[in-house]
Design the sequence.
């Protein structure tokens, strides 16, 4: 135990330069053993005794975890986007929202027949059950013109 402590003392003095390797080398991984480094050595005891190069590979990035999280974020983003579209869609409005629209009509549009007619149609469609009205005429498809 004290030997491991001596091997890793170099790491404290020099940040980012690993004298004590963070993981096992490729040969030690094959036999599922930890690397044992002598003080000041760059090659583990197992590789040194057999004459192998002591190579420590960088750990693999957690691509699976990141990909899974990104997928979840994209799904939730799509849900939020559809909810926001529904929120701003006047054809999916609740009676409360329609009444709020009527209260918030600007003073210049209070006497505008197109605006009042559109809000009335909206309210009647909502009462039908948000279904499509069978009386679709030219007035439904045209844009609203404001004075």
Sequence:
């Amino acid at each position: 135990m004290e030997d491991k402590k001596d091997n890793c003392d170099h790491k404290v003095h020099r940040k980012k330069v690993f004298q004590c390797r963070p993981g096992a080398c490729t040969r030690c991984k094959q036999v599922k053993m930890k690397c044992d480094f002598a003080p000041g050595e760059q090659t583990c005891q197992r590789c040194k005794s057999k004459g192998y190069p002591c190579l420590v590979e960088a750990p693999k990035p957690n691509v699976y975890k990141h990909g899974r999280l990104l997928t979840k974020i994209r799904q939730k983003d799509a849900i939020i986007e559809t909810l926001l579209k529904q929120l701003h869609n006047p054809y999916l409005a609740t009676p409360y929202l329609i009444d709020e629209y009527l209260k918030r009509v600007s003073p210049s549009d209070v006497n505008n027949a197109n605006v009042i007619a559109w809000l009335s149609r909206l309210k009647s469609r909502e009462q039908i059950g948000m279904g499509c009205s069978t009386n679709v005429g030219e007035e439904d498809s045209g844009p609203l013109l404001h004075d």
Observations:
- The chain has three domains: 6-50, 60-89, 93-131.
- Residues 1-19, 128-143 have pLDDT under 50 and may be disordered.
